[in-house]
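So, read this over?
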Amino acid sequence: MSFFQKQQLGTRMKSVFSKFKFLSFFSTKMPDFDIEFQDDDIFTQCFDVSHKITTKFLNKYSISKLTKLFEKHGILPRLRSLNVQPILEIDTKELYSHHLYIYERDQCEPEKAFVRLIIGPQPKFFGCEKHKTIKGMEKGRKFFECNLQGDLQVLDMKWISMQNTQAKFTKKRPRFPGQKCPGFGMMTQAIKVLNELADNDGIANEPMHFHNAVFSKAFKFVNPCFQGWFDSLREDLGDEIQKQGLSKVSWAIFYGGLRDKDGNKIEWEGEDMVQGKTEKVSKYFQSEGYRKYYNAAKFSRGFYIDWDSVKEKMSKN
C-alpha cells in the first residue's frame, strides 16, 4: 500500500474509531475481538474498491488496440528492423499497477523485454510530500496544492523502460544510471502512445535520475520552485555536461558527487512532472503565480561536481 493510501486509510479509520467512542457512552463494555486484515483487504473495504482482475489494460484497452497503437507510432516496425519478432503482453492482476511488455517472441521474460510500462489504472494522486534535501520548495508546493492539485487528473506513469537487449554499451552510447541495456531511440514515440492512452489532463512522471529529467523536455515539474531549482542545476552543470557527457554527470550525481557553492552535498530526488494535454494545465504552467515562484527559485547556486569524491565508485562503471 502506498504512502497516500495508508494516509487516507488512517483518516478513514480515525473516523470509524470516533464512532466507536461515541457508542461507548451507551455501552458499559466493548466486546473483545481480534481480526486479521491484509493491506489490500483494509483499503478495499474502506474505499469500496473492487479488485476485479480485468483483461484490459487500464480497464479499457485490449491487446489488439495496444498493438495497433505501437504499430501506428513506429515502435513495432522499429523492433522488426532489429530482426525482432515482437509480441505484446499485459499483466493486470495488481490493484494499483498494470504492466505492459513487448518481448522477442521466444524470450518472454520481464528482464528481457524491449518495452516495459507500469501504469496506475486510476488517475495519479499528488501527495506532495516534503523534499528531504532541497530547501525552499514549500511555497511552490503550496501554490500547486491551492491552484491545480485537487483538479488534476493524469495518467500515472510509474515506470517506463525502452531497451535494446541485443545491443552493447559503447563510448558513443554509454550506460546511464538505471540502464541494463542501451535504448533504441524510441522514447518520443512511446510518449505519443501514452498520450493516446491518457484520456484526461495528461501524463505524470517522477524522474528517478537527473538525466531522466533532462530527457523529459515535454514535461514540467508541477512545483514551480523545483522547476526553477532544476533549471539552475542544469545550467550550472552545463559546462560539465558538455565536457564530460550527460552520462558521467548523471552517474556522479547518482554516487553523491553533487555540491552547491558552499560545498554541501546535494542528493537527487525527483519530484512530479506533468506533460499536459488540456488548457487547464497549460494555463497553470503559464500563470503569473507559476512564473513568480519559478523566477524566485531560479538563480545560480554554484552547483558543481566533486569528481574526487566519486572517482573510486565511477571507476567500476
Summary: The longest strand covers residues 155-162. The chain is about 40% helix and 15% strand.
